[in-house]
Amino acid sequence: MMKLLHSYLPRPNSGTAPSPTCIPPSTTHVQPLKSCPRAPHVRIYPPKKGNNECAIQIIKNEAFTDATTQKQMEKAESIPIDAEKIRCEFFNFLRSKRSAEVPLTVEHAQPVLNPLYQDDKPPTNSEAMESCPKANVENFKKLLKEENLYLYTEAGEQGRLPLLILSMKESDNENRPAVVFLHSTRKCKEWLRPLLEAYASRGYIAIGIDSRYHGERASSKTTYRDALVSSWKNGDTMPFIFDTAWDLIKLADYLTQREDIDPTRIGITGESLGGMHAWYAAADTRYKVIVPIIGVQGFRWAIENDKWQARVGSIKAVFEEARTDLGKSTIDKEVVEKVWDRIAPGLASQFDSPYTIPAIAPRPLLIINGAEDPRCPLAGLEIPKARARKAYAEANCSDNFKVVAEPGIGHQMTPFMVKEASDWLDKFLLKQ
């Protein structure tokens, strides 16, 4: 094991300083963004004539905002946004939960021949991922470079972060853009290979990881479920979102030190659980472009509006355990709130979307959801959307924020979503 592989030593004079006490504000890590005119923040599919400036998602001619929500949105827009404070509080919170910090260390790993999926049935090929735009590269497979690595993000078994990195062997000497891809619940980094190959063919360095208690970080089909229940029982880990968010901050330490990556052109995207990981990893401003797919939601809004059932159903075992421990006959909003407070403190309060989504500004942010997704109800995004709209407008970069909802789609990533994400990342990360 070595502190950084020989091939990717830090740039001259860059050093190997540990992560800062607080994630610096975007003015430190983010290159100044060019000014852009005021523009719509939500795309409506199909477009409705006369509604091009509408900030409310419209499906089937019905607005999702009522008079009460409209008042809440107006109030939310009037609240000052201290993005640096929010990012610092989140980073310091994550840091306070670490078992022990370790030096930035990577080691070689072997390819995974039989990936572990925790689904009841083995997943089939993803039409959506297979549809991702690819460059026509002759002898692509021969020219494809694959790296299998472990990055150590903290002490302990779960502190070993498996990486799968794909890129093209033959390229110019210029540093290349990079994109981090994050899988959904019970999947793993190998599931992402169609996306990794597609982006590599287009000149990116494409990185997939196993999130906590998934893939190489799991030992059975119940590892993730067991970790969630243990978190409820003991309160010593955060397997739902936040521990992986820490990994992604440490991953940024590594990626910005690689000689083949342009540290000003690193993007991050993910599906479902991976979309939530991308959203929260954006607290680190070294991620320059963020595209969460079917991941962004309002956790507090769902509790208050009795729309929590679908999200709870995706990891139901931990809520059933909590229901029993709390002496309840059924899972109700009190159980839901107590579980979130225990396994992901702040998720339904100070780190919820109305606060953390606006804190991403002015970096380009594309939120992609299904219009009928019960896990990420569009109505729950109205307040975070209003606050984000204000933040991007104040940064004079309204074009850097967009919300897309695909009509008739529930909790599912589609070819349309993959193409939208691809176009957005290309727009901001590829040199024109």
From TrEMBL:
Pfam family, one: Peptidase_S9
Domain Peptidase S9 prolyl oligopeptidase catalytic span(s) in chain numbering: 244-411
GO molecular function: serine-type peptidase activity
A biological-process GO annotation: proteolysis
SUPFAM superfamilies: alpha/beta-Hydrolases
Organism from which the protein derives: Citrus sinensis (Sweet orange)
Protein name: Peptidase S9 prolyl oligopeptidase catalytic domain-containing protein
